[in-house]
Design goal:
This protein is of the alpha/beta class. It has a single domain, classed as Alpha/Beta hydrolase fold, catalytic domain (Rossmann fold, 3-Layer(aba) Sandwich), CATH 3.40.50.1820. The chain is 34% helix and 27% strand. It has eight helices and ten strands. It has helices at residues 32-35, 38-42, 75-80, 92-106, 118-129, 147-153, 175-187, 205-216, and strands at residues 2-5, 8-13, 20-25, 49-53, 57-62, 65-69, 110-116, 136-140, 161-167, 191-197. An eight-stranded mixed β-sheet has the order 1-2-4-3-7-8-9-10, sandwiched between helices. A two-stranded antiparallel ribbon has the order 5-6. Strand 1 (2-5) and strand 2 (8-13) form a beta hairpin. Helix 4 (92-106) crosses helix 5. It starts with a strand and ends with a helix.
Amino acid sequence: MREKIGQLDCLVRRGENEKRCFVLLHGFGADAADLFPLADYLDPQGEWSFYVPNAPLEVPIGPGWTGRGWFPISLRDLEAGVDFTQVRPPGLDKSSEMVSQLIFDLNAEQLVLGGFSQGAMIATEVAMNSPNDVAGLVLYSAVLLDEPGWTKKASGLAGKKLLQSHGSADTVLPFSAGQRLFNLLKGAGMDGQFIGFSGAHEIPVPVLRKTAEFISNI
């Protein structure tokens, strides 16, 4: 089902309990259809409602090809490997506000927020800005950005559940930057697990199995 919630177009799979929601944010250059099939894998019993929004920006990903993005990244930077640790990207605030509005409109009793790559960075920002709205955070191939700002805000997530994964051969977003993000969140008091794997910029099946366990225990 396709639905507009707030300012974002979403693919939606309604679960038995519409107050238990999983919001999942796709990566740069993809769209909602990229992650939407995970709903049936992560929750085959249909207990949770899944919301997978399209990012607001249309971005070039190759000659004649476009995808969606949460904030701009040049193809040159993407190919070279991006270091966001000391940067607050333009567009981060606007996209985060849109996702926060989506969460507000859902009015969930239990909400897990997750994302892949750029979507995971938006998820982290939203969770830090509205920690009372989030029960758990799932971050696939996420990295630290805006270290000064996130360091100040991370303590609001103390006690929240965290699952984070990253491939050791990731050439797009460095494994070490993912570890730095986890150390920040864990140090701030999140109840977290970091899954490193010998892959690249991806979500392998063992991580998806861990995610299914994670949401079943929320």
